[in-house]
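Worked problem 6 (solution included).
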Amino acid sequence: MPLESLIAEAKAAVLAYDAKKSADVANRAIAEKVDLVKLIEKGYTAGIKEVGDLFEQKKLYLPHIMSAAQAMNAGVNIIAPVLEKSGAKVGDGLGKFVICSIEGDIHSIGKDIVAIMLKVAGFTVLNIGRDVPLKDIVAACKTNNAKFVGTSALMTSTMVNQKTFEELLKKEGIRKKLITNVGGAPVTQEWANQIGADVYSENASDCVAKMTKIAG
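Solution. The predicted structure is:
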């Protein structure tokens, strides 16, 4: 089955909150050896972004997001280990990279895929979860002597915390020691410039390309 068809099925499964269908698409994609990164980004992630948009418009509610996330994870959790094992490292020892979904944001899929791909690229990745308090992100950066920190926000209501995080890093005296990366559906290059983040990533592939260039 062509990649385009699998992408459409993956997105539809997320929008229908159908975990069984989502897992079935993932297994078929692996068997047919299609581009799993594209399947995730254009299928599963696109589906959850659409659900997020509807939530922002108050057309859906939190239980819908949770159900969509469960459906998405049913597929991505199957793909992730395969993607990680099959990825040939393009670098090694590129530095410690703390990554999470920003405080207030329960989304994790995009961030998790970025984490996997950064690990494949040669970074030591510390994926500290979703809805992580800003002080805990700072603590993780300090404790692990991180060189890079990435935050994801999939809602306009939570992306403001990326700005607060930049301010907190300065207050804690470690901003100059870090390369900060921001991403998520509503996040743009203009937003990154406005808050003073070093790097804006449009998607997982973009993040890896930009960060490996900086680290290298």
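Discussion: The longest strand covers residues 96-101.
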